[in-house]
Design the sequence.
């Protein structure tokens, strides 16, 4: 019973934090709400018996990826001007149409998943089982993931290096 | 026993709600940083659905697909944020409507 209560609390926190993150005007505030949402999803992972996925969610999503966002927002130095611009863009006549479309698609999804039945199993799938499956039948997927990460590394290095070489931060703020 | 466990369709409901919120954020935002954040939310909701399905059958496959999604998200964010820096350098704004031509 406790698990179910904790699940609904975590799900509510995740949904509310995500809505708040999507409607903030300040990028850093949105990012912190997004981190709260990711931590709540990690709690859900833990409750449905995936402790390894929960740990990865916290370490990589909330830790590494969000820190990357923080670095870039700090480098861009948007400030109060960016806030005002965002507030102008977030009028209700702008978001009403997309919200309606997203709601229609959500209703379709709801119809599809309404036939799903049964509980999730309470026995946790341990990290050992995940590792055995990862380096057993899924070893090709690991190789593909490593190639993808290498491509991401090379691409981001290429894009970031040109940014730093040609036009530094100091030059831009003087112009 | 059934009443004591978390029902699978409630987890899928949370997952699809997160996906819908992320998609709405993707459509209403013009700032490229917020667009990337919405993409993260959508990928995360897909990962939640995978892990829930894996937990339903008690198999590790769901968590493995979760790790693959994590890899895709990390690579996408690294390249995407590099592009954010380029857009900011060229157009002096993060509004994606200014970056609508291929040779900019």
Sequence:
């Amino acid at each position: 019973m406790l698990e179910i209560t904790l699940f609904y609390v975590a799900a509510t926190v995740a949904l509310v934090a995500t809505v708040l993150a999507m409607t903030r005007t300040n990028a850093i505030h949105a990012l912190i709400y997004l981190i709260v949402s990711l931590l709540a999803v990690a709690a859900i992972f833990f409750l449905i018996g995936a402790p390894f996925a929960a740990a990865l969610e916290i370490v990589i999503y909330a830790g590494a990826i969000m820190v990357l966002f923080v670095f870039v927002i700090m480098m861009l130095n948007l400030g109060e001007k960016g806030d005002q611009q965002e507030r102008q863009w977030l009028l209700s006549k702008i978001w009403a149409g997309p919200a309606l479309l997203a709601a229609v698609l959500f209703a379709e999804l709801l119809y599809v998943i309404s036939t799903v039945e049964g509980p999730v199993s309470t026995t946790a799938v341990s990290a050992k089982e995940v590792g055995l499956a990862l380096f057993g039948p899924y070893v090709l997927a690991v190789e593909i993931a490593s190639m993808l990460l290498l491509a991401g590394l090379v691409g981001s290095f290429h894009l970031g290096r040109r940014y730093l070489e040609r036009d530094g931060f100091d030059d831009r703020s003087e112009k | 026993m059934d009443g004591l466990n978390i029902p699978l369709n409630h987890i899928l409901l949370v997952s699809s709600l997160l996906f819908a919120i992320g998609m709405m954020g993707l459509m209403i935002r013009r700032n490229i940083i917020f667009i990337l954040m919405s993409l993260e939310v959508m990928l995360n909701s897909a990962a939640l659905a995978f892990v829930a399905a894996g937990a339903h059958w008690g198999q590790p496959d769901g968590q493995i697909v979760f790790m693959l999604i994590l890899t895709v998200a990390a690579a996408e964010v690294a390249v995407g944020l590099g592009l954010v820096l380029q857009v900011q350098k060229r157009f002096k704004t993060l509004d994606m409507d200014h970056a609508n031509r291929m040779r900019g």
